[in-house]
Every structure is written in structure tokens, then in C-alpha cells.
Design a protein that fits this description.
single chain, 375 residues, mainly alpha, Cytochrome Bc1 Complex, Chain D, domain 2, 3 domains, 51% helix, elongated
Length: 375
């Protein structure tokens, strides 16, 4: 009986006239490229040009950009997720049709060459740091491996800590030394490039220290490991590695936290140590083996390979609204990457990926892509 009822029901459905079944799916109107061009000539050309090429440094080129990315970007300005007063105002006035049309217009244009990419050579922070490091070799040794007692090795040191240390010398937060006269000419990119170069060098094991007892020092380092890593090999870019460091330098540095160095947590711990304790701690860390903290020789290549998984010109995933970046304006790429890193532009993924990037790395990645042909 149930089978008969079900069969009748199916027949009833099949017998309905097609004209009585109305579709509820509304077909979206196609974008009007010519209307988009008219809008661009009226509203966008002063900055982005009718040809889609940015008219000044730090203004992105829009020609041949992915249509869905352009739509998503305009929508982000509409919703206040991106912060640019003029663009937010203009986006707020745009209708849905305006957004679709102007995005379709710029996406339809051929790519334009990046002027900044042609004029600016590829910037390698590693090679820049290597050139600057020649001035450090007299005291800190070739490749940052010091052989002078009391002088720290720089090879394998964490890069953010290295920059912070240089800034402390510049600000006279560390005791007066020859470093004070050598640093004033260095800019931030110079410091970061030096840091990357030295972080990428392999530390050479130094001779056993003449002072202290490493075995007695090991239990005293239990507290230190929380910041400086197991056996003094730090995994935090802002915290120094102590492994393999010159014992005399470590001795002076630890004692300095009692008086001149400004780290409250270090001062509290060091205050409770005797001179003998400090000697033993220095001896323990000096006897440990360190390693390079970065791979500066290949870091830009590795980063751009990761970027290309989403931003490569040949990658076109309809589920992602991401821009093509080859041939893009260098200054704009620098600005955008810094905004993602500093959490001033909304994107959880980009923020996480760019968070470890120094300005020198960002400059290098930006100069690489600016020098690539747009597609």
C-alpha cells in the first residue's frame, strides 16, 4: 500500500506543468566593464591611474589584479577593516554594482611594470649584513666567532636580541665601550641586516674556561632555562643564547645586572647570587655547544616559496580572495606587510605569518616581488 501511495506521489510530481514551478535562485547580473572604466576615470585615476598603475610610490597597481580580491578589498574599506580615510569615504558611497564594475574593469587590464622594481635592485639583508660585519671582525672575530677573552661571540646569536643590544649601546643603557663610537651611523635596516648575518653563522666551540666549575653551575641555571633555553640555546629571537659564549664576557654581563643593566627579572635573580655562583654559571654556559639561530642565506627564497602558494600568479583558488603580488609597487608591499605584522590590517593568517619578519626581511621580500614581471 505504501509503495502505491509513493508511486502516485511521484507521478503527481512528474505531471506538474513546468510553467508552474518557479525558480527561487536569482541570477546575479554580470559586471559592466565599461561602467567600471567610467567610474575609474571619475574616481580612481588620480591615485591608481586609468591604466591601473599607481601614480606614486606606495600606491598599489590594480591592473590585472584578481577581481574577487579587489571586491574584497573595497568591502574591507566599506566595513572599516582597512584604515584609509579617503578610501573609506569613497567605498562608503559605492553601490554594489559600482564595486563589481570597477573591480571587473581593473581585473580586465593587462599588467603594468613596476617602476619601483626596475629602479631598486634586489635588497638582500644577509649580503648587506655581511658587508657591514667586516667592521666588527677586529674585535668579534671572523664570522662573529671571537677569540679575544672578554669579548662576546656574535655567531648564532638571536637576531632581535642583537638589535636590542645595539640599541642599548646607542642609548647609553650599557656601559661606555668602543661600541658607542661605532654605532651612530647605523640605521635600523643596517642593524637588522647585521643581526641576520651573525645569527646565520655557525658558532665555533671555544676552549674550556679557566674560571668556575661547570658542574656546580648547572643546577644554578634551572631558572635561566625558562628564557634562555635548554643548555643556553635560546629559541626566542629576543632572548640571547648563552651556550658557547665567552666565560669572561658572561661573568661581566651577569654582574652588570646588579648595577647598570635594566632588566628587573634579571636583577632580582642575580642579586641573590654570590660571585662564585656567577663564575660557575658562566663556566657552565661557556662549555655548552650552540648553533646558528637563522638561515639568512636562504631565508628570502624560503619565504617567497611560501608566499607563492597563495600569491603566485599561476595559483587561482576561487575560495581565496588573495592578491597577485608579482610586479607590485615595492613601497606598497612594504607598507602592507608591516601593517599585517603590526596588526593594523585585518588578516589572522597574514598577521601570524608576518609577525617574525623584521623590517629588513620585509624590504627584501618586497623588493623581490617588485622586480618580478606582473602576470
Amino acid at each position: 500500500m505504501l509503495a502505491i501511495v509513493f508511486s502516485v506521489a511521484l507521478i503527481g510530481c512528474a505531471d506538474k506543468e513546468p510553467s508552474t514551478v518557479k525558480s527561487t535562485v536569482q541570477k546575479q547580473p554580470a559586471a559592466d566593464v565599461q561602467a567600471g572604466k567610467a567610474f575609474a576615470e571619475r574616481e580612481c585615476k588620480a591615485c591608481h591611474g586609468v591604466d591601473g598603475k599607481g601614480t606614486a610610490p606606495a600606491i598599489p597597481s590594480l591592473a590585472a589584479q584578481r577581481e574577487r580580491y579587489l571586491i574584497a578589498s573595497i568591502q574591507a574599506y566599506k566595513e572599516g577593516k582597512r584604515h584609509h580615510s579617503a578610501l573609506r569615504t569613497m567605498a562608503g558611497r559605492m553601490s554594489e554594482a559600482d564595486v563589481k564594475n570597477v573591480a571587473a574593469y581593473y581585473a580586465s587590464l593587462p599588467p603594468v611594470a613596476s617602476a619601483s622594481g626596475k629602479e631598486a635592485p634586489f635588497f638582500s639583508p644577509y649580503e648587506s649584513g655581511k658587508a657591514l660585519a667586516a667592521g666588527c671582525a677586529k674585535c668579534h672575530g671572523e664570522d662573529g666567532n671571537s677569540t679575544t677573552p672578554g669579548t662576546p661571540s656574535l655567531a648564532g646569536q638571536q637576531p632581535r636580541y642583537f638589535v636590542l643590544a645595539l640599541q642599548e649601546y646607542l642609548n647609553a643603557d650599557r656601559k661606555k665601550s668602543p661600541m658607542h663610537s661605532m654605532l651612530p651611523g647605523l640605521g635600523k635596516l643596517d642593524m637588522e641586516s647585521l643581526a641576520l648575518y651573525f645569527a646565520s653563522q655557525t658558532p665555533v666551540q671555544r676552549p674550556a674556561p679557566a674560571l668556575g666549575d661547570p658542574a656546580a653551575g648547572e643546577p644554578l641555571t634551572a631558572v635561566c632555562g625558562g628564557c634562555h633555553g635548554s643548555y643556553g640555546v635560546s629559541t626566542d629571537t629576543a632572548t640571547p643564547s648563552l651556550a658557547g659564549q665567552d666565560a669572561g664576557y658572561l661573568l661581566d654581563a651577569i654582574k652588570a645586572y646588579r648595577t647598570t643593566r635594566k632588566r628587573e627579572n634579571m636583577r632580582l635573580y642575580v642579586t641573590g647570587l654570590s660571585d662564585k655562583n656567577i663564575q660557575d654559571i658562566a663556566a657552565f654556559y661557556a662549555a655548552q655547544k650552540s648553533r646558528a639561530a637563522e638561515k639568512g642565506q636562504t631565508i628570502v627564497q624560503e619565504l617567497t616559496e611560501k608566499c607563492n602558494r597563495c600569491h603566485g600568479s599561476e595559483v587561482d583558488n576561487p575560495a581565496m580572495a588573495v592578491p597577485k603580488i608579482s610586479g607590485q609597487d615595492r613601497d606598497y608591499l612594504v607598507m602592507a606587510l608591516r601593517a599585517y605584522r603590526d596588526d593594523r590590517r585585518e588578516s589572522t593568517t597574514m598577521h601570524k605569518m608576518s609577525l617574525p619578519y623584521s623590517d629588513s626581511i620585509i624590504e627584501s621580500v618586497a623588493s623581490f616581488y617588485a622586480g618580478q614581471p606582473g602576470k
